Amino acid sequence: MNSDLRIEKHPILEFKRGKRISFQFEGKQIEAYENESIAAALFASGVKVLSRSKRLNKPKGWFCGIGKCCSCMMRVDGIPNVRTCVVPVREGMQVERQGQLAELPSHSEIHVEREEMDVRVLIIGGGPAGLGAGITAGKLGLDTVIIDENFNPGGQLIKQTHKFFGSKEEYAGLRGFEIAEIMYRDLKETGGTYLKETSVVGYYGLKEDGRHSVITYRRKQDGYTLIEISAKYIVVTTGAFENYLAFPGNYLPGVYGAGGVQTLMNVYGVKPGSKALIVGAGNIGLIVGYQLIQAGVEVEALIDVLPKIGGYLVHASKLKRLGVPIYTNHTILTAKGEESVEGAVIVQIDENMKPIEGTEKEFDVDLILISVGLSASNKFLSQAGCENMYVKEMGGWIPIHNDNMKTTVEGIYLAGDAGGIAEASTAMLEGKLAGAAIAEEEGSDSNQIEIVRKTVCAELSGIRKSDFLKNVGKGKNKCHHKWEEVKQI
């Protein structure tokens, strides 16, 4: 077991790990830093198996890194099912694998407080869409509260090290983590509140005064605070979760989502493996491939089932110049290993997506990176009663919404990937639209609102004319037309 997988030198990033601390993992003392999650600290110490599957007792490890899956659930200070990838490590805590059954403790010394909060605009999710909505609504005179379950503000922006394209409005030329810092500062300057380490329990309907009731809990040093939030408006910006891929051995630690790998190496500065195979040649797969090399990981190959690369040529060219082979018309056949990935086999496929016998290639890797798309994370919207529709161009089932990001439930809006898969710049702009639309409902300055709307719509129109986002524009139009139909019934 490698004693420390932390990255010491990086060409772009400087990791602010904070104070050195220690905690207990199954009777062993683990050294960590206060700005790490529990799961990241364990991974850095060489612990790959974080849990085991309930039915077959198979090993499971890091995957998404943002609390969207169950692979990292562990028992922490006696409490089971703690999502250790979004909980910061603290001095002296007791962490253990919980086995196949997550039994509740016989008693708990966890301190729980209760609070009530009344806000005009509640924003669920603190990434580019949520920050865009909060900043815009705040500038137009509304009080806003953003809640996010992670302890680093900025959502997926904080792990993006590449420079953004586009215009000044889309922070062109800046890296994602720089944009997150700017937007978080702008939110604070408008008077907005950002509650970190705060998770939604559920939507509890309309109160007698017509406000929406949402129950949340916030993690604290010595326990939790249960908060009942009453909000006139809700903007859901919960983002997306990574798609999985079915193949033998896909459960093994070492099979990780692309975003999860970014979080591990770009946020926490932990090397995710030594040799990698990347599955998926879209923009995310290509970008993370280059970031792996920056982190000192050898990329053995990148494969895709399609006959041509799906991402920008500029990203693919970087990998090719560095000697990374890219195999189109290929898929992964199996992952090898018992308790973690020890190798992988790929195979060429024919026009019917069937493996071609005799074309297998074997790679000696300990990391298989899965980058095969995203699905909208919109369960809260469904629970709140928002009507859904299937839009192929937007990645599947999404809540029906209009061009102002308003859903079919009065007072509930959305923005970003929760309303269909696109990219970060689009998410920011949609957040601004939602913030402006709510300000209009509240009677804010119509001239300022119109300026925001014209600017944002022009930016979105330009982005959606690109070859990579034309289909997104078509999908959005379908959704907007459906909203009109539903509202006329």
Concise account of the structure shown:
The chain has 489 residues and is of the alpha/beta class.
Task: Walk me through the structure.
The chain is an alpha/beta fold and 489 residues long. The protein folds into 3 domains: 90 residues, 2Fe-2S iron-sulphur cluster binding domain, sarcosine oxidase, alpha subunit, N-terminal domain (Ubiquitin-like (UB roll), Roll); 242 residues, FAD/NAD(P)-binding domain (3-Layer(bba) Sandwich); 117 residues, FAD/NAD(P)-binding domain (3-Layer(bba) Sandwich), CATH 3.50.50. Helix content is 25%, strand content 27%. The strands form 7 sheets. Strands 8, 9, 10, 11, 12, 13 and 26 form a 7-stranded mixed β-sheet that branches. A 5-stranded mixed β-sheet has the order 2-1-7-5-6, with helices on one face. Strands 15-22-16-17-18 form a 5-stranded parallel β-sheet. It is globular, with a radius of gyration of 23 Å. The relative contact order is 0.13.
